[in-house]
Amino acid sequence: MFTKKIDFKIKIIFLLILLFFLFVILRVVYIQTVDYEKLSALASDLWSRNLPIEANRGKILDRNGVVLADNLTTTSLILIPNQIKDKENTSKQLAEILGVTKEEMDAHVYKVTSIERVHPEGRRLSFDIADQISNLHLPGVYLVKEAKRYYPYGDFLSHVIGYVGIDNQGLSGLELEYDQYLTGEAGAIKYFSDAKGNQLNLSDIYVAPTDGIHLQLTIDYKIQMSLERELENAVKAFQPDMALAIVMDPNTGEILGMSSRPSYDPNHYKNASMDVLSRNLPIWASYEPGSTFKIITFSAALEEKLIDMEKDHFYDSGGVTVGGARIGCWKAGGHGDQTFLQVLQNSCNPGFVKLGQMLGKEKLFSYLDLFGFGEKTKIDLNGEGTGIIFDLDRVGELELSTTAFGQGVSVTPIQQVTAVSAVVNGGNLYQPYIVKNFLEPETGTVMKTVTPTLVRKTISKETSDKMRYALESVVALGGGKAAYIDGYRIGGKTGTAQKVENGRYLVNNYIMSFMSVVPANDPKAVLYIALDNPKNTALLSSYTTTPIARRILLDIIDALGIEKQEGQLVKDYTWEDRIYYEVPDVVGMTKKEAKQQLTKFKIEYSGEGDKILYQSPPAGERLQENETVILLLGNE
Q: Core-most of 169, 270, 458, 630, by most CB within 10 Å?
């Protein structure tokens, strides 16, 4: 009986031992198969370390591939304190090379950490300093690759592109708005060390970084360069408090150019004030637009069929009294009897007061809403303003009248350009945008394309056609003559707006502007330029912004390959204008016959003989009076 009890106990013990070993075996199998990767990673973390390798930030390019924001390869200093054998000497030598105190370097060298990035003293080092550190061959001292943002054209498009901080993070402009796309994924060099930080004799593992996505913009480099040049010249000539310009494709909402002054170089953004850095004036600035706003009022009156602009008349006596206030015309004594088309050409404020009264406040302000005033355009840039539009219940007779000619309301430049684009493109209000394509960084292939966003319909095509003609007539026959370009149908409208400070209008302090479209019959670009308080000039936009706009329009014509158009309105020339004439065909004529035909031009002969074999420019071209026609002579 006793023996049987012992045998039973032995069997129980044996079974327990067997179960224990079975559990151990199953646990080992589980660890080796199911839990291997997790435990391996945890173990690896105990003896592997990473030296980070920064990824290149995505490039920013113009619509034709010109690189506007690039990267430079630099090096930065990283320490592994546990591997530094002589901390005192290492700290002293690094401090001398970096130009910092030994105490500042001690804070890095003696720090209790596995990896120490020397910041900011050791960031983005010059090649010379990096070579000096490398030549020391100090244990625990490493130089790793870092990418530094580089803007090859300095302040070119600076407020749009923006800038990045020392860690390559976007801080403004497109760099901030699209930071998640532009930022790549860092790589690393993995090395292995023991618990004390001593490097083990194992092969390092290289994990390549992934560069950020490239952004291709709607911006045209040639057009942007024109804006930068002309604004810079305007600042030198007129010393304005600010200057800005925008060019938009009215058929899509694509921004072809955008610039402002004061500006800054994003390579050295710390040298600029925060006001300059944070204010992209074409989308941020808000001010009374003045007469460029009359385009909207005139469009509303035509759309509502309140006027026939060529048949209906308005008599301007020089001013009108509204709500006890006298609103005068800029021309002393007024313009007298005019068609409403001439009211626009002459920028006659009393005439626009009449249009405002005909529309009424509900109807006029409904069009302001329709064209997007008082709300953001939602352009893909940070810092956009909204402007200020009267609440309808606060609009009286006087507020209605001043709004009709662009005073008393506050709008942003981008709102104006977007609205006028809708006026001339057939009535379609598009959301403006800057980024056109997202490009794969390795191959440059298009990953995603941004398509135009139609916000809403504003006016009919019929009204839009009339407005294009009306704006062309302003340039040919009205206040925009300085923007006239022979052979190209230019539309436009000047603006001179008083500025308000502490609720009162300033004296001799205006924002002068010009809104233009090219070509007027088939718009490809809308240009807006404004100067705030220009000095040393007549207080008229026709002497300031309009000539500047003409030079930019010539560059737009060249950049977009716009050909000459037929049907251009003939300019109402004044005594100071140089007149254009068509060059006749004189090939085959004698010298005497050709001379009789070319009385408006100077003639330059080449070769000998009495017959005209060739002429330059060819027949049909237009030249200014007294320009030269070259004739090749022969005896054939």
A: 458
Written as one string, the DSSP assignment of 77-94 is EEE-GGG-S-HHHHHHHH
Residue 400 to residues 35, 151, 405, 413, 543, Cα–Cα distance (Å): 76, 47, 9, 21, 30
Q: Where are the domains of the chain?
A: 2-34, 50-155+181-216, 284-513+537-548, 580-634
Q: Domain 284-513+537-548: what homologous superfamily?
A: DD-peptidase/beta-lactamase superfamily (3.40.710.10)
CA distance 317 to 483: 29
Q: How confident is the model at residue 198 (pLDDT cuts 50, 70, 90)?
A: low
Catalytic residue among 158, 193, 291, 513: 291
pLDDT digits (tens, 9 = 90+) for 508-556: 788 999 999 999 999 999 999 999 999 877 666 777 899 999 999 999 9
pLDDT digit string (tens) for 334-375? 899 999 999 999 999 999 999 999 999 999 999 999 999 999
Q: 142 with 129: CB under 8 angstroms? A: no
Tell me the pairing of strands 214-217 and 60-61.
parallel
Bridge partners, residue 260, by sequence:
244
Half-sphere exposure of 587 (CA within 13 A, CB side): 9
Which amino acid is residue 415, in one-letter code? Q
Q: What is the pLDDT of residues 273-317, one digit of tens each?
A: 999 999 999 999 999 999 999 999 999 999 999 999 999 999 999
Closest CA to 278 of 267, 258, 262, 289: 262
Distance in angstroms (rounded) separating the CA atoms of residues 167 and 176:
13
Rg (CA), the chain: 36
The H or E element containing residue 455 is strand 454-457
Q: Where are the beta strands (DSSP E) in 533-627?
A: 580-582, 602-606, 611-616, 622-624
Overall CATH class of domain 50-155+181-216: alpha beta
CATH architecture of 580-634: 2-Layer Sandwich (3.30)
**Active-site residue 291, yes or no?**
yes
Q: Quick one: how far is CA 299 from the chain centroid?
A: 28
Any idea how long the chain is?
Answer: 636
The Cα-based distances of 496 to 212, 290, 513, 537, 540 in angstroms read 45, 5, 6, 13, 7
Asked whether 310 and 341 are in contact (CB, 8 A), the reply is yes
